[in-house]
Design a protein that fits this description.
Layout: E1 3-6, H1 16-25, E2 30-33, H2 41-51, E3 54-59, H3 77-94, E4 98-100, H4 112-132, E5 136-140, H5 155-165, E6 170-175, H6 176-181, H7 186-193, E7 197-202, H8 216-227, E8 234-236, H9 250-260
Helix pairs in contact: 1-2, 2-3, 3-4, 7-8, 8-9
GO molecular function, one term: hydroxypyruvate isomerase activity
Protein name: Hydroxypyruvate isomerase
Organism: Pollutimonas thiosulfatoxidans
Length: 262
């Protein structure tokens, strides 16, 4: 349950190499990148090696401006599969082993049934591709406030797709922030889908700022993960209130909680 710094949000204002250097200085062992496609993969790999960092997670390409993925959109299958291939190329160059496969939002006039069938067909093709590369694809429910219309907003909905595809290279990405923005008890929501969880992210539900591990439902969910034997990354995907380094005091409470849960 090591922490990964999401460099798409943390250390704002710095170029990526300086963000990586800062994350390493602050004790992070890994990073996440929502959009790794603006950097040359060889350069990114060199930065990771320089600072002893693992790239824990990337997203598939979002699509056109304003889109949040293409997986469920009928007629965009070739673009989605090309995006998966592009993400796998980044993984091959950097050693990343997890890709969030973005489902997107059903377009106006499309039926949810058609979009579900499109998503399932796309994932059934993509999962074997990922498996061959030693990569796991993840699905993540996005809350309706930040991502209105996204194909799934509840963890159980994303888990249902994972179960329907039924491939070991497709798993669930559980985000405390999105669950709490949906007014869910984060521990109960986690327990409902725990068997499929491969990657976790955390942030405070108010303004997506520094997490509060001492919040009782959050603390309970962290203990649930620990006691279940979860050994994956917990991505710190939040917007710092001020200086990122100065705001990392919450990690003391996090370490205490997961240590007590053993």
């Amino acid at each position: 349950m090591k922490l990964a710094a999401n460099l798409s949000l943390l250390y704002p204002g710095l170029p990526l190499p300086e963000k990586a250097a800062a994350a390493a200085r602050d004790g992070f062992a890994a990073i996440e990148l929502l959009d790794p496609y603006t950097s040359d993969s060889a350069d990114l790999h060199a930065v990771l090696l320089q600072h002893g960092l693992t790239l824990a997670l990337i997203n598939t390409p979002m699509g056109a401006p304003g889109e949040k993925g293409l997986g469920c959109i009928p007629g965009r299958e070739d673009e989605f599969r090309a995006g998966v291939s592009r993400a796998l190329d980044v993984c091959a160059a950097t050693g990343c082993r997890s890709i969030h496969a973005m489902a997107g939002a059903p377009p106006d006039g499309s039926s949810r049934k058609a979009c579900r069938e499109t998503l399932l067909a796309n994932l059934r093709q993509a999962a074997p591709m990922a498996a061959e590369a030693g990569v796991t694809l993840t699905l993540e429910a996005l809350n309706r406030h930040d991502a209105p219309g996204y194909f799934y907003h509840l963890p159980t909905e994303a888990a249902e797709i994972v179960a329907a595809v039924n491939h070991p290279a497709l798993r669930l990405q559980f985000d405390f922030y999105h669950a709490q923005r949906e007014q869910l008890n984060v521990d109960r929501a986690l327990q409902e889908v725990l068997a499929w969880v491969h990657h976790v992210q955390i942030a405070h539900p108010e303004q997506r700022q520094e997490p509060d591990p001492s919040d009782p439902p959050v603390a309970a969910a962290l203990r649930t993960l620990r006691r279940a034997g979860y050994t994956g990354w917990i991505g710190c995907e939040y917007r710092p209130k001020g200086d990122t380094t100065a705001g990392l005091g919450w990690r003391d409470a996090y370490q205490t909680i997961i240590t007590d849960a053993v």
